[in-house]
């Protein structure tokens, strides 16, 4: 099953004097069960690509299908709904809500979907067990280490059973011990069936992925361990 299909994606940012052409014709497909790392130097377009994939931003040109849904010409609330249903997002800076407990942070996406309380409890405990943090469910994020907070953020991304988990520099704010733990967790989740796309500049970690996509100046330059054919432009 194809989770992501991007065709000739361009992204231009209008500046006051100059226009930045951040993505210059990116085409790629990602199949269910893949673990893809997107690498490349600062400014090459990694974050832009991830935010378009996550429907946080839209392309200037090109087509993007997620789970066979064409995302062109969607209204804002439709995009939000598709994002909530199909995508889990993990940020470098965790983005947890400090005045909610761990349990409440993870429950939030399900509450927005009007899931029943008993089902929410069951599912939150399930993902907390998966990230080995059930014993911290009543803590606040600021009572936890960075590595623990990132594991909570991963649990929140998982809770709605998304088709695609997008991860932006997950180890960027962590020391190497915590970084290794988070990467090990992502590998475990992928083995358990999650499709993951991760942006990282750390080559130690990109090697954990089953496929590496390297960007340079808004274009895909090389691919390693390729299981799917990806067209250049
Ligand atoms: P990376 O994540 O690889 O560092 P980005 O996707 O953040 O790269 O940025 C790609 C290019 O687009 C850069 O030149 C950056 O300055 C520019 N850019 C990113 N976001 C914006 C924005 N919101 N407005 C204007 N330019 C942007
Ligand atoms: P782990 O190995 O599970 O990531 P750590 O060894 O980093 O945990 O931390 C051990 C304990 O210390 C944690 O259970 C956490 O409650 C507490 N702790 C760690 N860092 C902080 C912090 N910055 N603020 C408050 N408590 C912390």
Automatic annotation (TrEMBL):
Top-level taxon of the source organism: Bacteria
Protein name, UniProt field: Putative ABC transport system ATP-binding protein
Gene3D superfamilies: P-loop containing nucleotide triphosphate hydrolases
InterPro entries: AAA+_ATPase (IPR003593), ABC_transporter-like_ATP-bd (IPR003439), ABC_transporter-like_CS (IPR017871), ABC_transpr_LolD-like (IPR015854), MacB-like_ATP-bd (IPR017911), P-loop_NTPase (IPR027417)
GO terms assigned for molecular function: ATP binding; ATP hydrolysis activity; transmembrane transporter activity
PROSITE patterns: ABC_TRANSPORTER_1, ABC_TRANSPORTER_2
Coiled-coil regions listed: none
Cellular component GO terms held in the UniProt record: plasma membrane; transmembrane transporter complex
Keyword tags: ATP-binding, Nucleotide-binding, Transport
Stored CDD domains: ABC_MJ0796_LolCDE_FtsE (cd03255)
Bilayer-spanning residue ranges: none
Similarity comment text for this entry: Belongs to the ABC transporter superfamily. Macrolide exporter (TC 3.A.1.122) family.
One Pfam entry name: ABC_tran
